[in-house]
Every structure is written in C-alpha cells, then in structure tokens.
Amino acid sequence: MARAARELHSQRQFGVVVTMVDQYLETAALLNAEFGLPANSADVVRTVNDKHRMRAATLDSACAQVAHGSVRNATDLRSFAGRHDYPFILKPVDGSASRGIVLVADDGTLEAAARSLTETAAPGSRWIAEEYLSGPEFSVETFSTDGSHHVLAVTEKFKGENFVEVGHLVPARVGAADNAAMAAEVGALLDAVGLTEGVAHTEVVLTDTGPRVIETHSRPGGDGIVELVRLATGVDLQQLTFDWLAGRPVDPRPAPKARASATWFLTPPEGTVTAVSGLDEALAQEGVTEGYTVLGPGDVVRPLRSSDDRGGAVITVAEDPDTALTRARAAAGLIDVTVTPAAAGHGRPVPR
C-alpha cells in the first residue's frame, strides 16, 4: 500500500493521505510526513493507537488519571492487583472493536487471564492493565482545527457480553453539566496526545467522580456513528473531513434543529442459522432509515466477543432520544434469526 501511494504521488501529487481504518492510520501519517503534507504527525498517531503510550502522555496533563500498567505475565498481573486491587481491565495495547478485553475480577480470573497472555496471545502482542471504570459509557465525537477541539456529538453506548457494544444513541441522555465535563476531559486528552487536526472518537466513562477517558482514535467512530451524527445533528463527518483535506472552509457546528438517532445490533444466540426473517417488516417501521443482517442459513453464530460477532443492525430517527432508542430496539426485535446448536466442524463462518 505504501509503495502504491509513493508511485501515485510521484505521478500525480495529492494533498493528503487519509484512512478510516485503525491498522493503516500510522502508515498514512508516515506517508504524510514523507510527502510534507499537513496532518497529525506519525508520533501523534502512534500515541493514539498505543493505549500505553496514550496513558503515559496524560501523566503530566490536565486529564483525570487512570491507574494503568504494562503487563506481560502472571507476575505482572499479580503486581498490578496488589497495587490497585480488583476489578481491573486487561486488553491489548493496540486493540479495537472490543477484541481481547478481559475483566479481571478476582484471583481465579487473574490466573485464567495470565494463561491467555502466555498460551493463546499472538507472538509479540503487548497488553495493558487498567483500573476498572464504573459508570455509563459514552463516546465524544470531535473535529479539531489548529488545536481547537469542536464537539460534534456525545454518543450514549449500550454494552452486551464481553464489553461488546450492542447499541448507540445520539444525542446522549445527559445533562448540560455532564456534557461540558466530558467535553473538557476529552479536550484535555487530545491536547495531551498532541492531536491538533481532524476527526477523533474518544470513549469516556462517567464515573461518580467525573468523566474518565478509556481511549481515543484519530478517526471517526465505527458502528454507524457517523450516520447517527449526520441524522441527529446535520453534520456529515466524512464530508467535513473531505472539505478540510481539500482546504475548503469547514463549519463543525451542529444544525439548529437537531433530532435524535439510534442503532441497535442483532446478537442472536450461538448456533447454526437455519432461517432469517423479519427484515422487510423491520425496515417498514416508523423512523427506520436502514437495516441489514449478515446472517443466512448455514452461518455459524459465534460467542459475542467482538464487534465482528454481531449479526446486523437497524438505524432509526425520531424527534427525541427516548423514541429513537425505542424504535431501534423494537425494529431489531422484529428480525428473527433461528438457530440450532452448532456441531463442531459444521456450518460456514459468518461473512464479515
């Protein structure tokens, strides 16, 4: 990919390299630096993509601190538990889509987590332990210009098994004070990591003592959040990004007449799919703007361990958040995925 970009740039110079995929963000940043193009530096993107580097960047900043430590084995995990007690979170430093997140709740789960580090983790993988943040979870969608961070929306999140997100709602149902506190915390985090330009998606837990950042990304939020923001606020994050990259004036302010938008994901039980029905009925419901399923007869529904294990989703709009969420959950409930227990070695994987 990098070679192709260099060849293209030599033939017809372009203004900037951009991607929306985590694994290519650093490559894009390195190419921008090589070509002398305006964008966040490769070091900034590397810090954002590496959860341990991100935490280290906040140590001398205005951010509220979250206890954390790099861990490689059972000894490191026990040491972290001794300093910070249970529960705590274990996750890959470069993970996304909720992959690999483990709640370490006690000595027993610690030993199981330690075995996964040494026995099943990919060679060279790195892990971070962090204090468990208790409270409702949100994401703050921002666009930055010359170091000024503009909040476009706050997204309310809903979690299923293994911390996998099963729904989103824009705008989040929180008061003005909490909105302002989350915006301030996210601004402090983006300042700490050095992000000055473009879109960012930052996940936050609203704890009893105020907002705490889980992680941030120098790209738009996934799971259709870009569409939720567009439907609810009138701001098109992708168009905003393209206009910024093209040097055109950008206005990240939400539209005066805001609505609400929600998405709800299909999470059928494990097994082999025998039938899928109800999608047309779901699409016909009031407020539903789109819906889909990736499942068909013969597919195997796996345990819900990452965003990839969900079976589809619906998106809705309404004049208020409660109605948008109710519509999304109801429409998703009309899509029936019939499964039977999957025998080992039978059925084909769900297409992703």
Structure in words:
With 352 residues, the chain is of the alpha+beta class. It is built from 11 helices and 16 strands. Strands 9-8-5-6-7-10-14-12 form an 8-stranded antiparallel β-sheet, with helices on both faces. A 4-stranded antiparallel β-sheet has the order 1-4-2-3, with helices on both faces. α1 (2-11) packs parallel to α2 (22-35). The longest helix has 18 residues, at 176-193. Mean pLDDT is 89; it is low at 344-349.
Strand order of the largest sheet: 9-8-5-6-7-10-14-12
Number of helices: 11
Question: Using DSSP, what is the number of strands?
Answer: 16
Oligomer: single chain
What is the gyration radius calculated from CA atoms? 21 Å
Low-confidence spans: 344-349
> What is the average of the pLDDT values?
89
Element layout with pairings:
Layout: H1 2-11, H2 22-35, H3 42-49, H4 51-57, E1 68-71, H5 74-84, E2 88-92, E3 102-104, H6 107-120, E4 127-131, E5 137-145, E6 148-159, E7 165-170, H7 176-193, E8 198-207, E9 210-217, H8 225-233, H9 237-245, E10 260-265, E11 271-277, H10 279-283, E12 288-293, E13 299-301, E14 312-318, H11 321-333, E15 336-340, E16 348-349
Parallel strand pairs: 13-16
Antiparallel strand pairs: 1-4, 2-3, 2-4, 5-6, 5-8, 6-7, 7-10, 8-9, 10-14, 11-13, 11-15, 12-14
